Task: inverse folding
């Protein structure tokens, strides 16, 4: 029965979207509109306000989102993923649906599917750091730090929270790129000179570089020791900061 409901919702929404495209209506600017009724097109006509094609599309995605929440609470993660896939089929700008589905897929050891879905979402949503960060997190979790750095460098080029840059600094360390890590902490220290986490990391990396320059620690050895010590802790520390 759930699949029949989904099929009906998607079919109606797709017909409406096709109709709006044929009539020259443009999709709203890409952002998270769902469950925000104030974003409905202004009109004094009740039918137009509640049944305009793009509004119907958004309402259909809202229904799928609420169904995903229901499946989540009963532990039916397969259907959660199906709801999110259907959501982004209707609205490829729904960043949160990509993000949640990618996280669940990776947690179910379906990492390749997670990466493919997040990369598809990135094609449509390069205005936000979120999906690039999600990709970096998955690559870091699987110790592919080279790819993690690549996506984190894209993420920090967009407006975002401070801990995205913290994650980039830690990822640089994993690759032995201590100078790059220090540059990140230097910039953060200028922004928040009284932040104890930022200052502690800045001093730690600075001392590590000084030790390398004096010949007291080979870069590859330092990187190995640091990877063992930092494994799995950077994300927690960043959030505390």
Result:
């Amino acid at each position: 029965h759930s699949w029949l409901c989904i099929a009906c919702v998607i079919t109606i929404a797709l017909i409406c979207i096709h109709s709006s495209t044929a009539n020259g209506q443009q999709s709203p600017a890409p952002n998270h509109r769902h469950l925000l009724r104030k974003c409905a097109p202004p009109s004094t006509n009740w039918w137009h306000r509640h049944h305009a094609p793009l509004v119907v599309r958004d309402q259909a995605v809202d229904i799928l989102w609420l169904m995903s929440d229901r499946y989540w609470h009963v532990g039916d993660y397969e259907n959660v993923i199906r709801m999110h896939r259907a959501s982004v089929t209707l609205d490829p700008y729904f960043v949160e649906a990509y993000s949640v589905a990618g996280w669940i897929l990776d947690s179910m050891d379906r990492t390749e599917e997670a990466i493919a879905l997040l990369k598809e979402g990135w094609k449509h949503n390069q205005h936000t750091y979120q999906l690039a960060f999600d990709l970096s997190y998955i690559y870091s979790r699987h110790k592919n730090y080279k790819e993690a750095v690549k996506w984190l460098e894209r993420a920090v080029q967009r407006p975002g929270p401070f801990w995205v840059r913290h994650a980039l600094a830690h990822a640089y360390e994993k690759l032995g790129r201590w100078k790059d890590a220090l540059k990140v902490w230097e910039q953060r220290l200028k922004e928040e000179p009284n932040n104890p986490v930022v200052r502690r990391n800045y001093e730690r990396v600075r001392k590590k570089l000084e030790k390398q320059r004096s010949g007291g620690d080979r870069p590859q050895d330092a990187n190995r020791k640091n990877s063992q010590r930092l494994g799995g802790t950077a994300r927690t520390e960043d959030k505390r900061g």
In short: Residues 153-241 form one domain. Residues 12-31, 35-48, 229-241 have pLDDT under 50 and may be disordered. DSSP finds 13 helices and no strands in the chain.
